[in-house]
Amino acid sequence: MIANDVMDLVEKGLMLPLMEEFYTIQGEGYHKGTAAYFIRIGGCDVGCHWCDVKESWDAETHPPTNIGSIVANAAKYSDTIVVTGGEPLTWDMGPLTASLKNKGLKTHIETSGAYPLTGVWDWICLSPKKNKLPVGNIHQKAHELKVIVYNKHDFKFAEEQAAKVGKNCILYLQPEWSVREKVTPLIVDYVMQHPKWKVSLQTHKYLNIP
Questions:
Q1: Of 22, 25, 38, 142, which sees the most CB atoms within 10 A?
Q2: pLDDT > 70? residue 25
Q3: 25 is in an annotated binding site
Q4: What ranges do the domains of the chain cover?
């Protein structure tokens, strides 16, 4: 059980359930190939059956960590910080991003948008899921839309989500890793027929890095 005073700090965003933090190469989307420091926050109830970090779902298994130490570690490695999960917007991201910005760091988030957008972000990657759709106005704020393709029905969902984003949002279709050999040809064909979309691959997995 987490003490009440600690839970109070978590609810205020002054502590966060930290699953892991690491310096690596961004493997997906617009910034692929760029060195970045990743902060993975625990807690997610979106429930994607193909999620490759299911261990992130239960926030109680990840220790509440003071955002001051999270920011201090991040500042040692990179000026680009990617906050991911889990679903980071489960928590108030305002204090974390304010502290990162005070250090002159660029703030990126990878989110399903299932909870209201908090925090100040230089880059928002919205990756919506059918299980729990985005809320609020995050579609209009997203810099990139990344839809994971598990089967052919996901193209319809992708178009529904693309209709909601701003005109400058970059559109990506990404094969779900476990079925990539099956769906990648479908994505290639789709992008050639609908060139407003781009292909995103999980290049970090091909590079065998985190």
A1: 142
A2: yes
A3: yes
A4: 4-206
